[in-house]
Structures are given as structure tokens and as C-alpha cells.
Amino acid sequence: KLKKLIEIGVVAKSEDLVEKAVSEIHAVLLKRHGQEDFRIDTMEESIAMLDTVMNALTGIVTGIAAISLLVGGIGIANIMLVAVTERIREIGIRKAVGAKKRDILVQFLIEAVIISLMGGVLGIIFGVGVSSIAMYFIGLPLIITPWSIFMATLVSILVGVVSGVYPATRAAKLDPVEALRYE
């Protein structure tokens, strides 16, 4: 004898008949059980629940990505500040032989962008790798669009520029005489 039934799958003949089928099934089960000790879920409700879960996961991943970008940006700014400090005499020599503030600024911004791009490329490779493994176990195909790769690269460049502005500006504003005296 069957003591407990977990699930019954029912398919309506057409999408228009789903509500009527749910209503009839509800009436039959209520009559047989005498109480509402069951639940009826439609595919539409299941999809809505899955959509809610996916939105939550997307929010979590977005939050993690934002924190990672912030930490990466702070790291790049610190690296560039150290680079400026270590190269004060070099900056002084370049300015003494005719380099303009703009030249120094561009040099350090380019260095910050290169560091950021290297991190971005490693992040893309890591992200694709982890996503591939996850999708393999979930049993879904991995979809990577050129647009997502382009946007990730663009964000990397933007993080590099934003993180490099302060150190590059600081380097560009150095007084050549003071920079040449620095030890």
C-alpha cells in the first residue's frame, strides 16, 4: 500500500487549459483528503521561483565582482604610489631634460592600465574556467559572448585609469629640483 505520495506530474492538453486543470485537480484532492494537505505548482510558478533564485545569485555575484574591483583598484593605486616613490629621481631627470607634466602623467596612467589589464585578462580566464566547471556539473551549456569579454576588458581599463589618476598626478606635479635631491 502507498502511504505517502510525493509528486504527481500532470500535463494539460493546451496552455489555455492549465488554470482549469489546476482547479479540477485541487477540487478532487480536497474532496479525497478532506483537508488541504497538498500543494499544486504550475510550470509558470516553478519558472518564477527559478527566476527569483537566479536574480539572487546574480546579485551575489555582482556584489562579489564589485568588491573585487574595489580591492583591485586600491591595490593598483598602492602599487603605482610605490612606483612613483621609487622613481622620484627618474621623474626629476625626465623633467630636467624636458619631459612635460602630461608626459609623466600619461606614462604612469599607461602603467596602471597595463597592470589592470593583466589582472582583467587573468580574471576573464579564471571566470571562464570556473564557469565552465560549474556549467559542466549543472549540465547546462556555457555561453560566453564577445560583448561580455569586451565589457570585462573595458571595466579593467576603467579601473586602471581611475586607480592610476592620483599616483600619476602626484608624479606629474613633482618639482624637478626637489625630485633630483630625493634619495
UniProtKB/TrEMBL annotation:
It is found in: Cell membrane. Belongs to the ABC-4 integral membrane protein family. InterPro entries: ABC3_permease_C (IPR003838), Macrolide_Exporter_MacB (IPR050250). It comes from the Bacteria. Residues 64-176 form the ABC3 transporter permease C-terminal domain. The keyword Acetylation does not apply. It is a multi-pass membrane protein. GO terms for molecular function: transmembrane transporter activity. This is ABC3 transporter permease C-terminal domain-containing protein. PANTHER family: ABC TRANSPORTER PERMEASE YTRF, MEMBRANE COMPONENT OF TRANSPORTER-RELATED. The lineage of its organism: Bacteria, Bacillati, Saganbacteria. The chain crosses the membrane at residues 60-84, 105-138, 144-166. GO terms for cellular component: plasma membrane. Keywords: Cell membrane, Membrane, Transmembrane, Transmembrane helix. Pfam families: FtsX.
